[in-house]
Write a structure and sequence with these properties.
Blueprint lengths: L2 H23 L19 H6 L1 H4 L7 E2 L11 H10 L8 H15 L6 E4 L2 H13 L4 E6 L4 H8 L3 E6 L8 H7 L4 E7 L11 H11 L5 E4 L9 H4 L3 H4 L4 E6 L12 E4 L2 H8 L10 H12 L1 H24 L11 E5 L4 H10 L2 E2 L1 E5 L2 E7 L3 H15 L1
Parallel strand pairs: 1-10, 3-4, 3-5, 5-6, 6-7
Antiparallel strand pairs: 2-8, 7-8, 9-12, 11-12
The protein binds pyridoxal-5'-phosphate (PLP).
């Protein structure tokens, strides 16, 4: 493959994609003013291969800081378990799925019938959107936020009620509550939120869920929660045992460093799990190897602690360096940092790629932002050095 040509394609593609978003949002003038963050259609597989995520696998990308991946994973124990289980690849996943559901149920303090497992949380987000919005209605969620579930819901005919984040970048739960109407089929809360990296107080979320009182299911996406030091005190999972129609979703892509191995799970009321299972078979998306890797990783607490600690150190380093360069990064509790920029996102991204650094760019409320994922310290140093060269 001619890599320089592919890189040019990448830049061209990024320009086109970002430019398209810019046009749609041009009227907006700040993060909170205008809706429609990320309402671009999904890319097909071929387009995706041409897009930045895959192009970033090219050798000239030395720091891949664009998909909020864990640069330290998978854990050595997970890798060993994957190798050992490859010979079981002739068998369907049933008994492995049973084994991991039992472990996850015990970890979350729920029963077997409260857990659904699949190949990453994307599958669970999308299948929940299908299951709840197939007859239309609306979904209420924050703006900007993670868009997987909303994109699927709107693609099958639901509408999106987008509620701007508050000035402190937390969810505006009062406004979300007011937005609920007789047509609301699902509420989506991403906590911590992507792309802002910010946390909404668990006390506020719990009060909100109690106020909604199971009239509408509430999907709480906790993809990044386990990167927090105090994750157990911040999860909404306890609401499920209290009988609320809350769906908590987690992934092995972040803290466990298994994004390419695809394991995610959700915890919900038994009736909700049954309802989704009556339509789709999420566990059939799994492979036995990934499940065995996930089981080993669950037991590798030292690896999770290392990721949490090192991610935090590298995030703090990056945050301070961004400030020194004159940026105003949004304080993050996750493995990425969002920061406003003074140039079109396409320009920053292509200049970064020229220096071997892959990051993301977003137009939010009409303003350009960079989002850098937290990598190894050498990657973060290269990111800062490159950014400094670009802006000075
Ligand atoms: C908030 C959020 N939820 C879900 C996902 C999907 O993760 P996966 O499908 O790898 O589990 C991501 C991916 O970055 C995310 O940021």
């Amino acid at each position: 493959m001619n890599t320089s040509l592919t890189r040019r394609n990448w830049i061209k593609k990024s320009v086109l994609t970002t430019g398209g978003m810019l046009t749609g949002l041009a009227a907006a003038n700040n993060l909170f003013a205008k809706p429609a963050f990320g309402m671009t259609p999904y890319l097909g597989t071929y387009e995706l291969i041409e897009d930045f995520k895959i192009a970033a696998d090219q050798p000239e990308i030395k720091a891949r800081l664009l998909a909020n991946e864990n640069p330290w994973g998978p854990s050595k124990k997970a890798i060993a378990a994957i190798g050992e289980s490859a010979s079981k690849g002739n068998r369907y996943v049933y008994s492995s799925a049973k084994e991991i559901i039992e472990k996850l149920a015990a970890k979350e303090g729920v029963t077997f019938n409260n857990v659904l497992i699949s190949a990453g949380s994307t599958d669970l987000l999308e299948k929940t959107a299908f299951a709840t919005c197939m007859k239309g209605g609306n979904v209420v969620s924050a703006d900007p936020s993670y868009m997987s579930l909303v994109k699927t819901a709107t693609a099958i005919g639901a509408t999106w009620k987008n509620i701007p984040l508050k000035k402190d970048y937390s969810h505006d739960l009062d406004a979300m509550y007011s937005a609920i109407d007789s047509e609301t089929k699902l509420i989506y809360i991403c906590n911590p939120n992507n792309p802002t990296g910010t946390l909404t107080s668990i006390d506020e979320i719990k009060s909100f869920c109690k106020k909604v009182d199971s009239k509408v299911p509430i999907f709480i996406d906790e993809a990044y929660l386990e990167l927090l030091d105090n994750a157990e005190s911040q999860t909404a999972v306890g609401l499920i045992n209290e009988g609320y129609d809350v769906i908590v979703c987690r992934t092995f892509s972040k803290i466990h460093g298994m994004a390419g191995l695809r394991v995610g799970y959700m915890v919900a009321k038994e009736e909700r799990v049954k309802m989704i299972q009556s339509l789709v078979r999420t566990e059939m998306a799994l492979c036995v190897t990934s499940v065995q890797g996930a089981l080993a990783s669950l037991g590798d607490v030292a690896f999770q602690d290392f990721t949490r600690k090192t991610n935090k150190e590298n995030r703090e380093y990056t945050f301070e360096q961004l400030k020194k360069l004159g940026f105003s990064p949004i304080p993050s509790v996750t493995n990425f940092i969002l920061f406003p920029i003074d140039m079109p996102t396409k320009e920053l991204l292509s200049k970064m790629v020229d220096r071997g650094v892959g990051i993301r760019g977003f137009e939010i409320g009409g303003n350009p932002y960079g989002r850098v994922s937290i990598g190894k310290i050498d990657e973060m140093k290269l990111f800062i050095k490159s950014l400094s060269a670009i802006v000075s």
